[in-house]
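Per reviewer request, we include the raw input and output of the structure prediction for the construct analysed in the revised manuscript.
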Amino acid sequence: PDAGIVPPPRLLETIGPMARTVADVAFLDRVITGEPVPQISLPDVRIGIPSFDYWDNELIDQGLAKTIQVVFSRLRDAGAQLIEIDFNAILELDAGGRLSDASRMPRGDFGEWLEQNLPGVTLEDVYSGRDMRRVAQSQFSTEERVEILTTAASYYTDVFESSGLAAIAFPTIPIPAPPINPDGEMVGQKTLVNGKLVDEVAAIVPNLRFGPRLGAPGLVIPAGLTRGLPVGLELEGLPGDDSRILGLGIAVENVLGPIPPPLLVG
């Protein structure tokens, strides 16, 4: 249930449990949903991974990329069939924020939701200091929104079905966690990636957008460290495949094992 969450998760993202192990997440998921989590053998599954073109990008930290490649190598050694896919094409589903925009609740609908669930709280209260035209409403009509989301979902599904994939795997965030800004986090701030200053948000969010907009289940597994900071491996499936992704996550976690704790700098 998403009661009490503002804005409603369906606007921009999904919610889910966090735990120390995938097995614990799976246990909690079964308590909530009643669905058993299947046992999955890695040699029986095909997992889509980004092709070479994806990694040739200045916004992908090269140390993190090497960590993920080591993970892929270990999964291959465990028998998993890793199939290269055009991951850039999946990211292009949200080119220019198109998919994100189409996923937004129209402003009037969100205002009505607030009236029903949080009387006295306005859109301005929720989005204080932000451009209301961008965050609280979609620029597309209902028909356009349906077409955009339907087309994107069809392409995403075809990627899975055409290659017989159980999941796709990719770095959750393609850079290590950036330092906290001592002056406060600000839109447009820069961070160093491969020795170059780049827009921090542009570097962090690309891989996080398409799954929630399409209702796809995603699972993040600690995959290793780069420069002492944790790297996340994302497993994403088709909508409704939550239990299957959890079963696959348990199998992947059994191969990777626990990662060392991150380095703490005082």
